[in-house]
Amino acid sequence: MKYRSDIDGLRAIAVISVVFFHYSIGKFFGGGYVGVDIFFVISGYLITSIIYADITQRTYSITAFYHRRVRRIFPALFTVFFACLVASFFTNFPSEIHDIGKSIASSIFFVSNILFYSSSSYFDQKMELNPVLHTWSLSVEEQFYVLFPMLVFAMRSLSNGKRILVLFTVSIVSFLASVVQVYIEPTAAFYLVQFRAWELLMGSLLALNAFPKLEKRWHMETLAGIGLLAIIASVCFYSNMTPFPGFAAFIPCAGATAIIYSGISKKTFVSQILGLPPVRFLGLISYSLYLWHWPLLVFTRLYHQPYGAIEKLSLFGICIILATISWWFIERPFRRPPYRLSENTTLGTATIVMISIATLAVSLGFISNQFWQYPERVENTLAYKDYDTKNYMQEGTCFLTDKYNSFSYFKAEDCLNLSTNKKNILIIGDSHAAHLWTGLKSVYPQINFLQATAAGCRPVINGVGKKRCRDLIEYIFNVYLHKNKVDAVILSGRWKASEASSTLYTAEVLRQFVQTVIISGPITEYDQPLPRILARAIAKNDNEEEFAKKHLKTEPKFADDIFSKVQWPNGVKYVSVYSIMQTPTLSSDIPVQFDYGHLTKEGSIYLADQLRLDALLGL
Q: Does residue 1 surpass a pLDDT of 70?
């Protein structure tokens, strides 16, 4: 297959988008995660091109295919795995190492995407501190390449037109499934291969010449320009709120396909830019750069959250150095001839290495526990990271999340059931409203608390965010409160300073329907799960409260200051939750929060007691 420097340049765009997104560098990479989708298209194109070139030359064998994959994927990947195990032994607690080891073992056998899907939840912040979380994409690829070569081999006697028809049909089914699933269960659509296969197949169809050859130069240039703009628009204008993958993933995938397609016959202006030496170099190291960037960020975050541009760019510079070393000394020797090991020897050695590293990974937590011997309080405190929120927040009935990703899950008959002999107070908001319910219900049994909460947007009029959340808020504001009488409303959310004016406007409108509106302000937040911070303090025998203060985020305090200065109208009362929640633990050694900011049950009760709701309502 003819080498194309512009494809390396396309790899550079993909990897820079992903790294800048994860590192939060700049303001224009909110959709940088689409870089993974670009990689999928490139992979599908290149692998299919190689397979069909071998079939044409009658040299194709499935063993040879996996031999090439092992040489391409394993050396750098297993180096990163080993480095993560060593680093985690010295930086993580035994229970965390156990989780990391399980993740690495699943990544070794390319099923980490399934593990992450099955164990993920809205509150699972520990996933963000998993150094191999990014390997889900490699698992998707390798699962695809378990079946794809067999399908290709089975179709070897078919005409090219029939091959295209088969692959096109499969890709359409996968795409439609992704479009539907992203609104039913977005986590499944994101992680599982059946909802991502169409992205790789777009590249495969291109390799099979499924599209007519471009003859006119201006057609090539126009298509390349449109493709580049599609990718740039996706990177710049998508965000965490964009339903993804689904239809949104089609735009960057189509952009990547357009760029590859337009440059097949001749170099376009876009392909010339992508083929420039500095861009091409980033493409050459893109695999190693992708592998190293996430573990480096995770292990840095365990001790310090990089905030400023200089810190983030410095970290990125270290990534470039690591990736360059990895590419030159680890990737290249296994990819360039002469390569003297036979196919069977390579595959056999790879199997032994897989089993050895997997065994080390799953046993390292036990080894660490015997070696470090932390006080029992450390693991007891860390256990709060796995807090069970199912019934505590009424998830799936009165609180909608990614798992319950539709307004249809909201049980109005249970969540909005009015009492005839108690005061009725409606809690509206996101997860930072849902965690109030248990505490309020426990402290004020004489009040009937109603709950309408959904993760993904703030409780303001004409707010933006996840559809499930917008649908719920619109129903409450535009339907329910017009037809039902409640005594007070509590608005609570993960407020930003910029939302003070929209919150004021919302409160003024709500005063037409209720006697009192209570604004529950932003809560204290930490740069990593609070239980882990406290466990580190216990392990070091430091003062837990002082140690926790070093990890406080600054944004909630700034937002609280802005909200506190608002001239709230009569009947609207602001509560500075930030001021109340200054203690990280309760007297019984229980963390008040189980992740970066959500309350434990005990923390919720503590806050509810401190709110003095009876005084706020004049009871």
A: no
